[in-house]
Amino acid sequence: MGYDRERFVGYVNEGLLCCVCRDVLRRPLQAPCEHAFCSACISSWLLHHHTCPEDRQPLDVGSLKPLYRYMRNDLNRLQIRCVNAGQGCETVCSLENLHTHEEECDFAFLSCSNSGCPAQVERRGLEAHLSECNFCSRECPNGCGHTLLSTEMSQHNCVAELRSEVEMLRVEMLCKVEEVRREMESRLDSQRRHMVQKESQLKNEVEEVKSQLSRVICDVRALLGAERLRRQELAEIELEKRELLELLRDLHPVRNQQSDDQLGRDHLKEDRQTFGWQATFQPLRHQRREDSLNLPSVSLHSSQALNGPGCPPSPQSGESARKSGTQSVTLDCIKKKSREVTVI
To answer: Which CATH superfamily is domain 5-104 in?
Structure first.
């Protein structure tokens, strides 16, 4: 809103009036169409309209600009009465100096600076009011440190005030201590629950480790037992192998003797063929054949296997056949044991 036209002394040009409120311009702004407005008036107008209020041409806030300098000078030279003219101020000043005068005008009403006082006092009578104001506060003259109002000065008791203050501090301290105690209890409870959970978790882990350890111990014992059995079997196989080797070593002379006997028989056969032994020893041959019929069937078959179909059986040939069979069985056992040792 602009300045009231009734406050001005003398003639006011129509170009210095607001096109909205029709009062003298306050903080003026100018449109591109050269119409002037109060800043508050044109801002309120443009909230609901987008045209100039005078000629209805398009207008927005961004197109507004300050008033021309010669118009500002004419506006500042206008003579205006003080806003406190109703209280008795007769000052008339230029519009340019109005703000400075109003800050120093003795007829301006001010609020009392005392807390709680609702009085509105003129600037020229403010000091007198503050000296008599009932809401004026000052420190206790006895030195208790309390700030008292003028009405409370006669009823003030320093000891009672200090006691009440100490009691308030004690109650406040007790409340704080209780709050801290509750907070500590809640923290301890949470920590206790956490520790119980951790303890149960650790117990479960220990039990699991124990079960795993027991399984490992059982597995190790089983492996040790299997290893012990394997070593026993290896020891037994080694012992049998040694026995078989000793038996084989004992059988080597028998094989050499059999080879010598076979060689002698071959030479004898050649001699007999040379000198015609068949006619000479024919009765003896029949006699040996009759004796061989009386031997067991096992000896007969063994001698026939050793001597062949054309040779007469003899006790030495039966013993040789038995030893040869034993040697073949022994060799088979040695081969079998060797294969078992290799597999193990």
So the answer is: Zinc/RING finger domain, C3HC4 (zinc finger) (3.30.40.10)
